[in-house]
Fold this protein.
Amino acid sequence: MQLTRCPSAAKVGARKLSRKLVVVRAQVDSAAVGSKVERWLKTPFDILAFGPRAGAGALLSVPERLQTLQSDVEKAIELLQDPRPLEEKQTAVLKEVEDTLVGFLEKGATVESDVLANVKTLLPPEAANLLNEFIPEPPNKQPNVVHVEPVEAVPQPPVTYYQADVMANQPLR
């Protein structure tokens, strides 16, 4: 974190007022923080659905979050009293916020998938197929697929073992 002071002076009438501007720049390791949320922002539809998904997940998580409220407050107080540098504290808070946000997104996407599945059952097959084209699967429902080059398999003839073959490979006594 970098603090910069920029003095500026402004004259008002005959008096001189002095103001100081404090600029705070936060430098965060972008590789560590934000990587979990990044996969939720891949397509334009994901960007549009980000808020509603997070909101629905947050609403579903209210009872759980109320139960852990006291421990969350204790964690925040411990972090404030922690002697670590401010940058480390900032990174810890951002990671915690990211984990919470991803949890909300996952719950919201699950509700979204369930609602869409119910709507698709009521629609004619053509309309359901169009809906599948316009609305992609949420990131937590997409399988992690590794693209592999297709390889032509050459069929092998079956191997048949006869008694003479087995006896030929037996050690002599």
Remarks:
- The beta strands are 2-12, 15-25.
- The chain has six helices and two strands.
- The two ends are 81 Å apart (CA to CA).
- Residues 29-134 form one domain.
